[in-house]
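Please predict the structure of the following assembly.
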Amino acid sequence: MSGGYWLTIVEGSWLTLSLALCSMALAVVLGLAGAGARLSPLRPLAWLGEAYATVIRGIPELVMILLVYFGGQDLVNRAAALIGHEDYVDIDPFAAGVATLGFIFGAYLSETFRGAFLSIPKGQAEAGFAYGMSRWQVFRRILWPETVRLSIPGIANNWLVLIKSTALVSVLGLPDIMFHAKQAGDATRQPFTYLLLAGVLYLAITSVSLLALRVIEKRFSLGVREVRL
Amino acid sequence: MILDFSVIWENLPQFLHGVRVTLQLLLISLAVGFVWSVPLALMRVSGSPWLNLPAWFYTYVIRGTPMLVQLFLIYYGVAQFEAVRASLFWPWLSDATFCACLAFAINTSGYTAEIIAGCLKTTPPGEIEAARAAGMSRLQMYRRILLPSALRRALPQYSNEVVMMLHATSMASLVTLADITGVARTISAQYFLPFEAYLTAGAFYLVLTFLLLQLFKAAERRWLAHLRPQRR
């Protein structure tokens, strides 16, 4: 195993991490929007949110990635040609990766946020109203912090799945851990060594995430009694 | 109209063949993975660290790394070793279908073992006490009470795992197999219609996901009937 290749793979983990972080940020925004839509009393909005969550969760990530990157690029160019645009439009693979993963995990997170919101005991909001708080105050002071706390296990799970899903974006040619590992393996004819290194790096990222998420969960559950069975 | 689905329509038989390949991959890997996951789950709930730790390590590593890495390690990786290429298993290990099934089975066994172990741990104490009171041996208790009870209660979580696996089989297209995604890739390259091809693939997966979920709903109605609230 020569040093040069080893380094490129480790460098690839920056791309993996930034891809995962950007996608997660987008997913949280879309997840909140999706959960808001699904909980909305407006029928069409609720229906739209429901359709988003159902359809996206029924399609493999790889197919979505291929559809958005190759299909999207193709569609944009066909549309551009139709309105008389001559140049070929390129989609940035990083942006496509973030958009796709964010869109997919937004659907999963909308389920998490919705579940968290629905599992807040009714009495809490009622107590807020009894104190004379406005609807907005009840939401901001009571429902929102509770939603955040109750969503953390779900967010944690989705984060772990998301990190592993970023490996798929290497098929778009993005130089992440997986891409470099495959290249190094092909170049040196030692695919096992380099793919194993990639596996170890992913395991390191998920392990650190697990530890960090445990700390965060503790922090947000301060003042909540722990149930022991 | 800027979309052109006539090519997709003409190539529908190819897509249907892709569905067959996808379902074959799914069934084989689920079956093998399930058989492998039950002993793993039993090891995971064992009090002995000699049994517990190796199983914990296995599921931790499998669940902590991307399936793509596992698949590539098996398909591209093992060929690195002369001993493997000279061995009896080489005809199998150089076959994409075998490698994909093996990687998928190993992957799903890790997740399934944790699901089953979780359900074993949450067995109502009364069931175990009743089995002891009836004078069952450990083996009898596991065979007659613990496993059937845990496997039933694992159904809802297992249905999620099965859907995840259905979606994961799309990675088989990355090791040259012609599953639904593989067919879409070929058609997309042949006719240069990536949008229509991948959209069609997505639709097929959506329908399959929906069918699988219906199947599991029926299974839950059948095997979890005793846990449903009584309606008079």
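The interface with chain B takes residues 55, 57-64, 66-67, 70-75, 78-79, 82, 164-168, 170-171, 178, 181-182, 185, 189-193, 195-196, 198-199, 202-203, 206-207 of chain A (CB under 8 Å). The longest helix of chain A spans residues 3-39.
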